């Protein structure tokens, strides 16, 4: 009951992060958040894996230049030496760009040049988490879109990172180790291509039944199939991911390291045994992540097309 009261307080009362605030579009585009939710719902009804796609897009965007939608920019075909973030190897399997386009189109019809692409990513991610059974929470808005997108600037922690290596990247972005562990819980609705974990198929530190299953999945030569990172409740946003990695059923190296490294193992155990604690920590962490180096006020722009600068 105590946690329930705290959660209700968190969901109902306004939150402000610097110049961001909940309800930023209340006057300028009153239906903005409803429009985002409706478009995301239509996509979610067809493809429940979109939650994982949006979470990854949000993370990859915020960790490069901040949460400025720079990940959405298409490369300039006439200038191959200046490729955008989207063209970086780490972003090669990021999904959800068409969904963002659809949301932007609907918002431009309702409120031209008002809602930023950066806020669209943030709101769409929030809504998809709730649709997958995760927590419902408010996010402050008011971000503006960036004016720079360079593939050369994309440096992200990879699936083969150690806990310490990943922690250094999160720390550089103002996030703590505990917040990193909570955010990686997003893998509960994610999947990965075999190329990201094929080297683990002979790893004795993986549950042998899972190893055999993944071996079958990844067997086709010349292909790069995918596997869910949470083998039990693959499209439900819950704390099952932590239970799985404790059982040595982590698909990615970094995921399994979370359960075995002394830096993270204690909190992994806490989250595995306490779903409410995980969801509260996740909400706090992802709202904080959404404020990384944001552009507000007169900085940046409000793009008319999320794929191109105005």
TrEMBL record:
Active site: 60
Pfam families cross-referenced by the UniProt entry: peroxidase
Cofactor binding: number and manner: Binds 2 calcium ions per subunit. Binds 1 heme b (iron(II)-protoporphyrin IX) group per subunit.
Leader sequence segment: 1-18
Catalytically driven reaction(s): 2 a phenolic donor + H2O2 = 2 a phenolic radical donor + 2 H2O
CDD domains named among the record's database cross-references: secretory_peroxidase
InterPro entries per the UniProt record, alphabetical: Haem_peroxidase, Haem_peroxidase_sf, Peroxidase_pln, Peroxidases_AS, Peroxidases_heam-ligand_BS, Secretory_peroxidase
Highest taxon of source: Eukaryota
Residues the entry annotates as binding heme b: 187
Protein's name in the database: Peroxidase
Source lineage: Eukaryota, Viridiplantae, Streptophyta, Embryophyta, Tracheophyta
